[in-house]
């Protein structure tokens, strides 16, 4: 009699152990562990989450319920529903063409869908909203709307006029990288002031710092940069992760009115400036440079200029405008010589 009870207990325990092992291996599929942190492999998790990974752009779009997330390799910013937020470097990475998001980041963002356990995370499938996904970065703005948004901004360089030199305008061809110009440029010969490494760059408006490249790593060689440009040629566009490298040392601002700025090619950023800081139009962002350009890798001091991308809720401001309208907007809103 006693023997039978023991046997039953042993069999039951074995079954439980087997079931537990099976369950936990299943739950662990789709995870990797890196330096003690759990990451979701979004390629495998795409059954539970609506995620789209672009191997060319090295960019991931993830939709959880009504929230749309956009990540790009080595970009320390996440776009959530057209707003920009700082992202810790270790919270997103790409390996062997697969995208990984840290489980703790997702748990913090989406507590009703992600629960972290000691060694793994439990996921609940989310009904993603197609409407939300489509609302991201597809809206274009009219001339009147753009004028309204831009009236909240001031020029980034003291005494400079709006630089409307044709190749400095957004939409201009950038054949060297098989793409087009996304933002505005200010060069010495067309901005009405000297633009060099002593030129101070200011914040343009009231907002929050979401990115400051204090630890910027330039291309190590001309060859390395050319390798990226060769890939642009191969895919006939500038992939998102390469575009970010070509912008060099950057500061990104999320303005209170919904606009965003990416200050690019900076030589230095202000040492006191940090992610999370609140800024105004008078805050020193950094100094003009040529980081990310051919002038930087060739060390010939060429290409010194300020480049700024301006976006309205994730969309480049000029997408719905004619070239003439863009010029008008710049002259009326970003001119110091009025
Ligand atoms: Zn530019």
UniProtKB/TrEMBL annotation:
One short Pfam family name for this protein?
A: Peptidase_M23
Query: Which of UniProt's keywords are assigned here?
Result: Hydrolase
| Keyword Hydrolase among UniProt keywords | yes
Entry EC number(s)? 3.4.-.-
This protein's record includes keyword Signal: no
CDD domains annotated for this entry? M23_peptidase
The Gene Ontology terms for molecular function here are:
metalloendopeptidase activity
InterPro entries in alphabetical order: Cell_wall_metabolism_enzyme, Dup_hybrid_motif, M23ase_b-sheet_dom
Q: Which residues form the M23ase beta-sheet core domain?
A: 246-314
Protein name as catalogued:
M23 family metallopeptidase
Protein's organism: Priestia flexa
- State the taxonomy lineage: Bacteria, Bacillati, Bacillota, Bacilli, Bacillales
């Amino acid at each position: 009699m006693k023997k039978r009870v023991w046997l039953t207990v042993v069999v039951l325990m074995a079954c439980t152990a087997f079931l537990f092992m099976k369950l936990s291996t299943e739950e662990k599929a789709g995870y990797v562990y890196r330096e003690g942190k759990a990451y979701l492999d979004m390629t495998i998790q795409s059954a539970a989450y609506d995620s789209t990974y672009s191997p060319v752009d090295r960019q991931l779009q993830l939709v959880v319920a009504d929230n749309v997330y956009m990540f790009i390799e080595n970009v320390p910013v996440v776009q959530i529903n057209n707003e920009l937020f700082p992202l810790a470097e270790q919270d997103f990475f790409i390996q062997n063409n697969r995208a990984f998001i840290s489980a703790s980041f997702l748990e913090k963002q989406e507590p009703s869908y992600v629960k972290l356990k000691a060694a793994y995370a439990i996921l609940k499938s989310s009904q993603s909203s197609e409407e939300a996904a489509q609302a991201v970065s597809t809206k274009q703005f009219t001339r009147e709307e753009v004028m309204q948004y831009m009236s909240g901004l001031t020029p980034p360089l003291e005494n400079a006029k709006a630089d409307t030199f044709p190749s400095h305008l957004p939409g201009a061809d950038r054949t060297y990288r098989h793409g087009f110009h996304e933002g505005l440029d200010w060069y010495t010969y067309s901005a009405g002031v000297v633009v060099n490494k002593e030129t101070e760059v200011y914040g343009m408006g009231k907002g929050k710092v979401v990115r400051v490249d204090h630890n910027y790593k330039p291309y190590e060689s001309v060859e390395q940069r050319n390798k990226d440009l060769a890939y642009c040629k191969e895919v006939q566009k500038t992939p998102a992760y390469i575009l970010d490298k070509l912008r060099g040392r950057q500061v990104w601002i999320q303005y209170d009115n919904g606009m965003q700025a990416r200050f690019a090619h900076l030589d230095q950023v202000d040492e006191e400036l940090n992610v999370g800081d609140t800024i105004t139009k008078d805050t020193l962002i950094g100094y003009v440079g040529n980081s990310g350009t051919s002038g930087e890798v060739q060390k010939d001091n060429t290409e010194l200029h300020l480049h700024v991308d301006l976006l309205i809720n994730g969309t480049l401001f000029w997408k719905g405008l004619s070239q003439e309208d863009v010029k008008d907007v710049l002259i009326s809103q970003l001119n110091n010589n009025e």
